[in-house]
Design goal:
The complex is a heterodimer of chains A (about 110) and B (about 120). Helices cover about 0% and strands about 50% of the residues of chain A. Chain A is built from no helices and 13 strands. In chain A, the strands form 3 sheets. In chain A, strands 2, 6, 7, 8, 11, 12 and 13 form a 7-stranded mixed beta sheet that branches. Chain A has a 4-stranded antiparallel beta sheet with strand order 1-3-10-9, with no helix packed on it. A two-stranded antiparallel sheet of chain A has the order 4-5. Chain B has no helices and 11 strands. Chain B starts with a strand and ends with a strand. The chains are: A mainly beta (about 110), B mainly beta (about 120). At the A-B interface, β7 and β12 of A face β9 and β10 of B.
Chain lengths: ~110, ~120
């Protein structure tokens, strides 16, 4: 199985400041023939199911604010929130769907400083 | 707009079978040609993919659960279901159903979740 490791485990950022969450996969998730990274980011607020934010490593899901962006390729990825808002308090998960079983990172808890 | 509504028992005894269903609304499970999956989350922990099924009935299971797992589709009820046999306390978790447009794809739409506790 591909192991997904997020860092940090928790993060506190001031409102309006930038937040960055990293995810490293134990194997490459870039598929050469179509040059796509089989990688996504989700946001999970308390008591809610996960919500898809980013897929193909950098494509924002419809309706997701443009302060959320995804970058990276191969084995190293980053989710960036350009200007933290109060409603961004949540746990964020990365996910590889390059191979079965699909696997998730352990989660990063994002809080307001 | 496609939505997923979960149903099933929240308390299961050890060694018994956990059964959950996910009703699809807003589209036909047969015509949409999507993949329908189950993911679980133990209390305070991360997400684990359980398995996925295509509308035709083709199934894809997590190797760690495969021997106890059955995922099925009922096109007449526009729903798909999860059965996990011989449960233990380690199977206590929030169970989510979700939709993927392709097997190797992110999960676009999620059900609300069902908390299942394994306890005598």
């Amino acid at each position: 199985d591909i192991v997904m490791t997020q860092s940090p485990d928790s993060l506190a950022v001031s409102l309006g400041e930038r937040a960055a969450i990293n995810c490293k996969s134990s194997q490459n998730v870039l598929y050469g023939p179509n040059n796509k990274n089989y990688f996504a980011w989700y946001q999970q607020r308390p008591g809610q199911p996960p919500k898809l934010l980013i897929y193909w490593a950098s494509t924002r899901e419809s309706g997701v604010p443009d302060r959320f962006s995804g970058s990276g390729s191969g084995t190293d990825f980053t989710l960036t929130i350009s200007s933290l808002q109060a409603e961004d308090v949540a746990i964020y998960y990365c996910h590889q769907y390059y191979s079965i079983p699909g696997t998730f990172g352990q989660g990063t808890r994002l809080e307001i400083k | 707009q496609l939505q997923l509504q979960q149903s099933g028992r929240g308390l299961v005894k050890p060694s018994e079978t956990l059964s959950l269903s996910c009703i699809v609304s807003g589209d036909s499970i047969y015509n949409s040609a999507y993949y329908w999956g189950w993911i679980r989350q133990p209390p305070g922990k991360g997400l684990e993919w359980i398995g996925s099924i295509f509308y035709s009935g083709s199934t894809y299971y997590s190797p760690s659960l495969k021997s106890r797992l059955t995922i099925s589709v009922d096109t007449s009820k526009n729903q798909f279901s999860l059965r996990l046999s011989s449960v233990t306390a380690a199977d206590t978790a929030m169970y989510f159903c979700a939709m993927q447009q392709q097997l190797y794809d992110a999960f676009d739409i999620w059900g609300q979740g069902t908390m299942v506790t394994v306890s005598s």
